[in-house]
């Protein structure tokens, strides 16, 4: 992740919506792809503060109305207001009448914007049905529905939300945005780290399996990851929760969960790939140096650099009493799978223009996101 600069000279970061030095509002300009000072003119119209750009901008609805976004749209818009190129994918947002949900939603959007930064870096295709992308990408941010205790019907009307992916729809249980809840789950699952951005990177892995592998490269996928139909996903899931992972999982997989089924192995390895890309990009921008170009770089050099950084940064975290920054160990079978994903990403980038670009967000989304959770829960294919 790169840093940006305010008109006043102060550094701006990707999540900023305000410059802490000059107190001007800032936001992401889609015309020049930077976090920039938002300069109002005499008519109150906002202009991009980048002198080489100067685009006329309007804040995303989720910026102006809820302060959970910091992105803008470039004028002219077809409608008086619209959703930005990240928020336009929201299908369900948390129920904002519930205390604490606005804060959780803010954290989810911040992580989602980083996901889209990763995808733009790599030039991967994605879009809505209106963009002609199949499957269409969408997000549901939902909470479990738990009836009030003490009711005789306790147990009825409950809806448990599973974080997962099905046919382009990524569902995240919003309790993952609660630090205490997420840390409890991390310990319960025996994970080295558990983060919101990690969830987005994992679930988008399932999405790209559908886009880039399904019905197209399944044979080479099966050679490396195993047959996803034997055992079936349901059988593998049951076995995983009954028996746990195999004792030697670390010799073959990036995580214990990856050993559950080839699709989970792919999503876990994909998430590791995106984490590596992001870490190398940030290391480059903050002056750690190294080969970081995610498009042309040789993967072996990137892996070597990531491992070198991981050792140094793990030690740094240990010296501060924090969890390891890079707890994963990249054994040879995992590196082979990363090579498969690296090649897949390059193919995805080449096909992006053919499939249809995601460059311009429509001025107004066809369906505004529902304000509250829908009552129906589609079954999730993968968790
Ligand atoms: Zn400033
Ligand atoms: Zn601009
Ligand atoms: Zn937005
Ligand atoms: Zn999964």
Would you write up a description of this structure?
- This protein has 383 residues and is of the alpha+beta class.
- The protein has helices at residues 61-64, 101-122, 179-189, 196-213, 218-225, 233-243, 262-285, 299-319, 332-355; strands at residues 4-5, 11-12, 26-29, 34-40, 46-48, 56-59, 72-74, 90-92, 138-142, 154-157, 164-166, 169-173.
- The chain has nine helices and twelve strands.
- Helix 2 (101-122) crosses helix 4 (196-213), helix 7 crosses helix 8 (299-319) and helix 7 packs across helix 9.
- The longest helix has 24 residues, at 262-285.
- It starts with a strand and ends in a 28-residue tail after the last helix.
- Mean pLDDT is 89; it is low at 354-380.
- The site of one zinc ion (ZN) has 9 residues, from helix 1.
Strand order of the largest sheet: 3-4-5-6-7
The total beta strand count reads 12
Please give the alpha-carbon distance between the first and last residues.
28 Å
Helical percent range? 25-40%
Which class do the helix and strand fractions yield?
alpha+beta
Taking the sheet with the most strands, its summary is: 5 strands, antiparallel
Query: Outline, from the CA principal axes?
Result: globular
The overall average pLDDT, rounded, is: 89
Strand coverage percent: 5-15%
Number of helices: 9
Low-confidence stretches: 354-380
What Rg is obtained from the alpha carbons, in whole angstroms? 21 Å
């Amino acid at each position: 992740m790169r840093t940006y600069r305010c008109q006043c000279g102060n550094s701006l970061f990707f999540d900023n919506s305000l410059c802490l030095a000059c107190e001007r509002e800032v936001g992401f300009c889609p015309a020049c792809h930077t976090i920039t000072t938002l300069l109002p003119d005499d008519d109150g119209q906002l202009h991009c503060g980048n002198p080489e750009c100067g685009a006329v901008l309007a804040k995303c609805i989720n910026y102006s109305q809820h302060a959970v976004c910091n992105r803008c749209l470039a004028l002219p818009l077809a409608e008086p207001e619209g959703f930005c190129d990240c928020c336009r994918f929201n299908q369900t947002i948390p129920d904002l009448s519930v205390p604490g949900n606005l804060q959780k939603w803010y954290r989810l959007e911040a992580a989602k914007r980083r996901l889209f930064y990763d995808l733009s870096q790599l030039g991967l295709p994605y879009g809505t049905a209106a963009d002609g992308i199949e499957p269409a990408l969408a997000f549901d941010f939902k909470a479990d529905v738990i009836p009030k205790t003490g009711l005789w019907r306790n147990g009825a009307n409950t809806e448990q939300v599973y974080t997962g992916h099905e046919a382009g729809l990524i569902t995240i249980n919003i309790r993952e945005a609660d630090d205490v809840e997420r840390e409890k789950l991390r310990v319960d699952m025996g994970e080295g780290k558990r983060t919101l951005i990690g969830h987005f990177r994992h679930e988008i892995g399932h999405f790209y399996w559908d886009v880039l592998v399904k019905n197209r490269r399944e044979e080479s996928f099966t050679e490396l990851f195993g047959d996803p139909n034997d055992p079936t996903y349901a059988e593998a899931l049951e076995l995983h929760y009954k028996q746990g992972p195999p004792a030697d999982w670390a010799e073959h997989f990036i995580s214990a969960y990856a050993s559950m089924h080839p699709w989970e192995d792919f999503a876990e390895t994909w998430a590791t790939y995106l984490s590596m890309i992001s870490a190398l990009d940030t290391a480059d921008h903050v002056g750690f140096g190294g080969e970081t170009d995610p498009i042309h770089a040789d993967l072996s050099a990137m892996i070597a650099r990531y491992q070198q950084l991981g050792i140094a940064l793990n030690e740094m975290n240990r010296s501060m009493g924090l969890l390891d920054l890079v707890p994963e160990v990249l054994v040879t079978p995992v590196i082979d799978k990363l090579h498969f994903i690296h090649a897949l990403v390059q193919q995805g980038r080449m096909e992006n223009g053919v499939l249809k670009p995601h460059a311009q967000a429509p001025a107004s989304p066809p369906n505004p996101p529902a304000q509250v959770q829908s009552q129906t829960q589609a079954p999730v294919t993968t968790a």
